Amino acid sequence: MQTFIQYILLSTACLSVAWLLYKALVEKGTIVKTRRIYLIIAIVLSLAAPVSPLTINTPVFYSEWDNSSITEVGNNSTGEATGMQAADTKVLPTNKQSRTEWDAKGILFSIYLAVTAFFMIRIGRELYIIMACYRRSTKQRFGQLQIVWNDRFKASFSFFHLVFLNKKYLQENEFDKVVAHEKVHVLQYHSIDLLLVQLLTALMWFNPFVWKMRNALQLVHEYLADEGVLQSGIDIVEYQQSLLDHIAESQVFTISSTYKHSLIKKRFLMMSANKAAAVTKYRVLYLIPATAIMLLGVACVNGQAVSEAPKVVTAVALTKANVVYIGIENPVNISVSGYRPNDIEVAIDNGTISGDSGEYIIKPARPGKAQITVKAKGRVVQETAFKAKFLPAPVVALTPATGAATLIKGGHITKEALLTAGGIIATVENADIDIPIKVASFTLSLLTNGNTESKSAAAQTSSFSAEQVKLIQSLQDGQRIIIDDIAATGPDGKARKVPASMVFTIGK
User: Fold this and answer.
1) Whole-prediction pTM value?
2) Counting C-beta atoms within 10 Å of the first and last residue's C-beta, which end of the chain has fewer, N or C?
3) Residue 99 lies in a domain
4) Are residues 173 and 273 both part of a single domain?
5) Burial 337-367 (b: 16+ CB within 10 A, else e)
6) Which stretch of DSSP H or E encloses residue 489?
7) Helix axes 2-21, 208-231, angle to 10 degrees
8) How buried is 107 (Cβ within 10 angstroms: 0-12 exposed, 13-18 middle, 19+ buried)?
């Protein structure tokens, strides 16, 4: 949301600069075609400039409190060894004022989205009505135009190559004037301009300069169409009288070009005015200083954002998991920029947290949530929540072959496969983290005489002992072996019994 808001605001500022330069230097006494070119390029540049990567660093001054607002919670090398993953975090406002400020921003942004959605829906509705009218009306090819004879709309208008006319409200001597007028709109692709500017006003409806730019572009379109009509040989007096006869009829759609556009007085004055000098076409070059101003402003904003980022943005970079485990040490690094380690206080509401100089050990006491509170000189600057839970019970399996994805925990197996495995492992399946567990000892038992007698051999590592290998080599098809009495050491280095066993039947 923040990035989108910044883009909209920067685009709005760029459009405002472009409009002010247009009013001051381009509008008066400039060839009409040049005005259109300026407006279109200005809109495109204003939309593109905010994504410029240019940056100009600007000095920023902060109080000690501002400098402390970034908090990083990360893992040290021990934490990486335990495979601990990134925790769910909650960045809290440092005071009621900042919380209220963000609430207000959220409300304003919701209002902005609602109004923008209204304008976008209106554009979609107009497109739908035009297409629906086109499908239901009689069509007639007229050169490069397609005349759409409809009985729904009184006013004549065009949309791309379609010219919508109503025979009931069109006199015979007006057909040539209307078609000549709309033909200019069609051949000069004014509908593309109108769609662009309507989408622009939908996104930046709050900027009055955007509405002025839209109206200016629509008026320029009418100037160009009037100019094209008069150059086709139609008498100026007859043409002006035709416009006056339909002055009461308003524009049908905001995305269409119409024969009876408003601001008749300005159009009449433009028809009668002396033609602007050809040299005025070079006034479009005023876009160069306009672009320079836009890019300079964007670069300064980008530089300000870079300067502010490490000082006013609260960031949390945690280790790999969103959990801390009961019964083991969970290492975490905590630092607050702008403060000495002695100024930082940390506390946890579930279990204990110990350490200093940024390196801490978390030992949660019970399952649920464990929240770390970080204070700098007595002020809360960060609260980070973890999930606390018991270590999952491990399972045992044969040592997997390289690249094997499935663990073998029992069932039918050949002697060769047992010997190839070479031993057993203990692991936690579907755990949030990679918990290092090492088998310390286990017993392998061979059942004989209809499973009524047994022979056993022990191993003091995770690999089969020499006695266990001999038992495996002596196995016959159909015989069963049991691997149990397993002890394993966890991350804390303590050996514990593993409540699991494996049963195998020799055979294919």
Assistant:
1) 0.51
2) C
3) no
4) yes
5) ebbeeeebebebebeebeeeebbbebbbeee
6) strand 480-489
7) 50
8) exposed
The dihedrals phi and psi of 332, each to the nearest 5 degrees, come to -155, 145
* CATH label of the domain that carries residue 349: 2.60.40.1080
- The DSSP-derived string for 144-179 is TEEEEE-SS-SS-EEETTEEEE-GGG--GGGHHHHH
| Residue 338: domain span | 323-390
pLDDT in tens, 389-424: 887 778 899 988 877 778 888 889 998 988 999 999
Ramachandran angles phi, psi of 351, nearest 5°: 100, -150
Residue 85 carries which DSSP code? B
Say which residue the tokens 């209106």 belong to: 122
Residue type for position 60? V
Residue 87 has pLDDT above 70, yes or no: no
Q: Could you tell me if 197 and 56 lie in one domain? A: yes
Closest C-alpha to 195, from 290, 119, 308, 141:
119
Type of residue at 296 = L
Long-range contact pairs involving 361-366 (C-beta distance under 8 Å, separation at least 24): 361/329, 361/330, 361/331, 361/332, 362/324, 362/329, 362/330, 362/331, 362/332, 362/386, 363/326, 363/328, 363/329, 363/330, 364/324, 364/325, 364/326, 364/330, 364/388, 365/326, 366/326
Rounded to whole angstroms, how far apart are CA atoms 258 and 190?
11
The answer, yes or no, to whether residue 371 has pLDDT greater than 80, is yes
Which CATH number goes with the domain that contains 457?
Answer: 2.60.40
Q: How many domains does the chain have?
A: 3
CA distance 113 to 211: 18
Category of 357 on φ-ψ map: left (φ > 0), alpha (ψ -120 to 50) or beta:
left
Residue 483 has pLDDT above 70, yes or no: yes
- Looking only at the bridges linking them, the beta strands covering 502-506 and 411-413 are parallel
Least confident of 6-10, 167-171, 275-279: 275-279
Domain final residue pick, 374, 390, 406: 390
Q: Is the dihedral of CA 504, 505, 506, 508 positive or negative?
A: negative
Can you give the length of the chain in residues?
508
